[in-house]
Specification:
The complex is a heterodimer of chains A (about 375) and B (about 240).
Chain A: H1 2-12, H2 14-17, E1 31-34, E2 37-40, H3 57-66, H4 81-84, H5 89-99, E3 113-114, H6 124-131, H7 145-155, E4 182-184, E5 189-191, H8 207-216, H9 227-234, H10 241-252, H11 268-289, H12 315-323, H13 348-360, H14 371-377
Antiparallel strand pairs in A: 1-2, 2-3, 4-5
Helix pairs in contact in A: 1-5, 3-5, 7-10, 8-10, 11-13, 13-14
Chain B: H1 3-22, H2 25-30, H3 39-42, H4 44-50, H5 70-82, H6 88-94, H7 99-110, H8 126-137, H9 149-152, H10 171-182, H11 194-199, H12 203-215, E1 234-235, E2 240-241
Antiparallel strand pairs in B: 1-2
Chain lengths: ~375, ~240
């Protein structure tokens, strides 16, 4: 039960929010900046006074299932109870049993620093009425066992929709648009739609490619970066082959809406920027991404036909060029190749040119971008 | 071949093998990318700032890495990753990389021996340079400041495994690091004496020693002194005088 709990705690990525990087796990205190102020995650180690050492399994399940704290208060949805409510009692009990075995750390919780009126938890009642449905996952009888396992993992413990959904003004994810993608507030990263064939839709990916991306962090279609690198690093790399495959089967099957995609290669702005972009690409990028944007297998992601750089929101490819990055070092890929940052070497105009070039060349159907788009992201947070 | 070198080879062979089975067969044939499967290729994300072989670059604040002891370089990479040493672009690159990989990167740069870059001649006055020279070679007993060479080696090329060389660095970088140590903005899991020493130094001391160090010529041999070859002025683990 404890081993199962450890596995599920990883699948739920409790550690990401309830630990400060480089400090002791589960002691909480990690600041989470939101448009309404800063939340500090609580200590969930088994310390009796400052952690959850005095909780019972019933109390723990009730919190995970109803989104109300042990004292009965409404929880902020930064704690992903809207997803965890779908978990079975057995799975939640296993997580609780595991948390009882981790080292107890004495560290009092830091109060949240939220602005009026968001510091009033009663306000959450309205939000809950709109966006929260309490209840465990109900299998879809029309689908396979594997599909249902994947759906359970993604919607429940994996809380994928927390990022992969447009965020509304109250910081909740709207259900109607589930998995349609959205800009993560305060982080300036765009989590693409996971709906088939739309944005970074996975409809055209093979099950193996999706599985590689989720488990190894790299695939022949693209690599993970930004907040998704953390998800793979902390959580998905540890999941079993069968569970990863189940999620891939489910993700590939999400309903799709095919976008009207026309080429922007002849737009005036693209025609203006592309000669410069082409030159920069040849000098600075082609050695890794290939002369035709073809990349090299799982080493260097392809840019031709890569949905993740053609989305309406150009935020991700701009940040990639400014900040570079390594995909996460994972059990299956412990020594990833990396991409250099270019913020210190290229001007706003140059970054705009090369990003416009990769978004509109080789049959890619993204829109041109401007130097102002680039400038706005120079100060984006790196943590 | 030493036992360690042999072990490294074996590890590498195992690595290469496990990677082969994972590398893509279809794309390898059609890709125009010819970069070899090597650690050189893997640190290309670093060399834009630190120079192709870690020799340093035109920028005042991008330090030389080449030839510094591997243990020291690893401690720094871990400190950036864990947030004890602060430079956001590097923390961002290293955030999700495992220890074993950081060791490999550290060993790579430790083994490089590119020529030293030509440094701008410091504009400091002769008096300032004299103070810098004195602190470096003799320290200041009255103020309990040990000589830098007591730890960083008589030729200032560092001491294996954890003490860096101080040559080939620009004055601005050196003074920025001394300032960061003094104000506690630079730390690592591996306790060291620099915070204690910089507390005893004035701003003019720091400016002087930085100017002097950056004016020194290339060493005859860039290799760090071997472990235990000189008694340290302070026991770095505890920060207490010996």
């Amino acid at each position: 039960m404890v081993a199962r709990g450890e596995y599920l705690a990883r699948a739920s990525d409790c550690i990401a929010c309830h630990s400060k990087p480089g400090e002791r796990p589960f002691a909480g205190g990690r600041p989470m900046v939101t448009p309404f102020g800063t939340l500090y995650s609580p200590n969930i180690s088994p310390d009796r006074d400052t952690g959850i050492g005095a909780w019972t399994a019933d109390e723990f399940y009730k919190m995970m299932h109803t989104g109300r704290s042990r004292s009965g208060e409404l929880l902020y949805p930064a704690m992903p109870f809207t997803a965890y409510t779908k978990m079975s009692r057995t799975d939640v009990d296993a997580i609780f049993a595991y948390l009882k075995t981790v080292p107890a750390i004495r560290q009092p919780n830091r109060p949240h620093a939220l602005r009026f009126p968001y510091n009033d938890r009663k306000l959450l009642l309205g939000w809950r009425a709109l966006y929260f449905t309490e209840g465990e996952y109900q299998p879809n009888p029309a689908k396979s066992k594997e599909w249902n396992r994947g759906a359970y993992l993604a919607e429940g413990p994996g809380h994928c929709s927390m990022c992969h959904t447009p965020i509304n003004a109250l910081g909740g994810s709207s259900r109607s648009a589930a998995y349609e993608g959205g800009l993560i507030p305060m982080q300036d990263w765009y989590a693409p739609s996971l709906t088939s064939n739309r944005e970074a839709g996975l409809g055209e990916w093979s099950i193996e490619e999706i599985s590689d991306l989720l488990q190894a962090g790299v695939s022949e279609r693209g690599a993970v970066y930004g907040p998704m690198a953390e998800v793979v690093h902390n959580s998905l790399q540890y999941m079993s082959d069968a569970d990863i495959r189940a999620m891939a089967v489910y993700l590939k099957d999400l309903p799709g809406s095919t976008p009207p995609a026309s080429s922007h290669a002849q737009d005036a702005e693209a025609l203006r920027l592309n000669p410069l972009g082409k030159k920069i690409y040849a000098n600075q990028c082609a050695s890794c991404h290939g002369t035709r944007g073809e990349g090299r297998g799982r080493d260097f992601p392809p840019l031709a036909g890569n949905q993740s750089i053609q989305m309406d929101s150009p935020v991700n490819p701009i940040r990639m060029v400014l900040n570079g990055g390594y995909p996460p070092g994972t059990l299956r890929n412990p020594r990833p190749y990396g991409m250099p940052p270019f913020a210190q070497d290229l001007s706003d105009e140059e970054v705009a040119a090369v990003v416009t070039y990769i978004r509109t060349t080789w049959g890619n159907r993204g829109t041109p971008i401007t130097d102002r788009d680039v400038n706005a992201l120079r100060s984006a947070p790196l943590d | 071949m030493t036992v360690k070198a042999m072990r490294d080879r074996i590890l590498r062979a195992v690595f290469a093998f496990s990677l082969c089975s994972f590398a893509s067969a279809t794309f390898a044939q059609t890709s125009s990318v010819t970069l070899p499967d090597s650690i050189d290729t893997r640190v290309m994300a670093c060399t834009g700032c630190h120079g192709a072989r870690g020799e340093g670059s035109h920028d005042d604040y991008y330090p030389r890495l080449a030839g510094k002891p591997a243990g020291y370089l690893y401690n720094q990479l871990a400190a950036f990753r864990n947030g004890q040493r602060k430079y956001a672009p590097m923390t961002y690159l290293l955030e999700y990389l495992p220890d074993s990989y950081l060791h490999e990167m550290a060993q790579y740069f430790a083994a490089q021996q590119p020529p030293f870059p030509k440094m701008p001649t410091p504009t400091a006055s002769p008096q300032v340079m004299a103070l810098g020279k004195k602190l470096t070679n003799e320290g200041d007993k009255a103020r309990d400041i040990p000589a830098c060479i007591a730890c960083h080696g008589a030729s200032l090329t560092g001491v294996s495994p954890n003490i860096p060389g101080l040559l080939g660095l620009r004055a601005k970088y050196i003074s920025a690091q001394l300032g960061a140590s003094r104000y506690g903005a630079r730390g690592s899991d591996h306790p060291n004496c620099m915070q204690k020493i910089t507390h005893r130094m004035t701003d003019s001391d720091i400016a002087a020693v930085s100017a002097w160090l950056s004016s020194l010529p290339e060493p005859l041999s860039p290799a760090p002194a071997t472990e235990g070859s000189l008694p340290l002025a302070l026991t770095c683990g505890t920060g207490e005088p010996k």
